[in-house]
Amino acid sequence: MSQPLLELLALTKHFGGVAALSDVSLTVHEHEIVGLIGPNGAGKTTLFNCVTAVLRPERGAVRFGRNQRQELVGLSPADVATCGIARTFQNIRVFANMSVLENVLVGAHPRTQAGVWSALLRSPSAHREETWAQDHAMNLLEVVGLEAAATQVASSLPFGFQRRLEIARALASDPQLLLLDEPAAGLNPTEKQTLLQLVQRLRDQGLTVLLIDHDMRFVMPVCDRIVVLDYGQKIADGPSAAIQNDPRVIEAYLGKS
């Protein structure tokens, strides 16, 4: 097993009197694809939001890094992105009126250094960064199979292509950990198979992935390990075969007989 990249320790988050997360601990190792599943309202997206600093937990720790892990609780979302975590969302959030290439360039912004004046004055460093960003963005569009659509307006893309565009934009910040929130939602079987192969290819290239999805036919083949939440608590953690046969997981999804 590779070393831990992400550690969540006793993560707890309430909304009013409802415990969205209750003492949830989990570890994601380098180069793993980990699935996070559970019924609606189990706390999956809340967990993503706590990791990426969209929400702040009342209790617990979020530690991230290859060697000396950094505490992420208390940082801003921008700081978390700079640390090396990127994400996509349940609902597609492309910049509809920008081109496909421009969408990916937005994702590359955390990797650039040139300031406003440098960019306005077209300094040599700003020009080098612009050239690098263009090349980087085009390479990522090739990775997700969208290089031919680079100049198209993002809103003109089919739904499945927009999903892949979101992934390319997330990859533009060169993350160590990619969080995918229901990436297969709304895709047809062919698109899901293409996405499954893309996620596996990204892991083979060194990326670590934590994903949420409800489609077990997508989650089970692609994930090395699966974590199950129910009512904000972790009820199972293990390989696909063990999760499929876990009585607590079956009860969470289907209820008691």
Shape: globular
Look at the structure and give the mean pLDDT.
89
The CATH superfamily of the largest domain is P-loop containing nucleotide triphosphate hydrolases
Distance between the termini: 37 Å
- Rounded Rg: 19 Å
Major sheet description: 6 strands, mixed
The helical percent reads: 25-40%
The poorly predicted ranges are 115-121
User: How many strands?
Assistant: 10
Figure out the total of helices.
Answer: 10
Please report the first level of CATH classification, the CATH class of the largest domain: Alpha Beta
Strand percent estimate: 15-25%
**What is the string of SSEs from the N terminus onward?**
EEEHEEHEHHHHEHEHEEHH
> The CATH topology of the largest domain is what?
Rossmann fold
Briefly note the structural class of the backbone.
alpha/beta
Descriptors for this entry?
single chain; Rossmann fold; 38% helix; 257 residues; four-stranded antiparallel beta sheet; alpha/beta; six-stranded mixed beta sheet; 2 domains; globular
Structure notes:
The protein has 257 residues and is of the alpha/beta class. The protein folds into 2 domains: 1-84 and 175-257, Rossmann fold; 94-172, no CATH class. It contains 10 helices and 10 strands.
Q: Any chance you could write out the topology, listing elements then pairs?
A:
Layout: E1 4-15, E2 18-29, E3 33-37, H1 44-51, E4 59-64, E5 70-71, H2 77-83, E6 85-87, H3 100-108, H4 116-120, H5 124-143, H6 159-171, E7 177-181, H7 189-204, E8 208-212, H8 216-222, E9 225-230, E10 233-238, H9 240-244, H10 247-254
Parallel strand pairs: 3-8, 3-9, 6-7, 7-8
Antiparallel strand pairs: 1-2, 1-4, 4-5, 9-10
Helix pairs in contact: 3-5, 3-6, 5-6
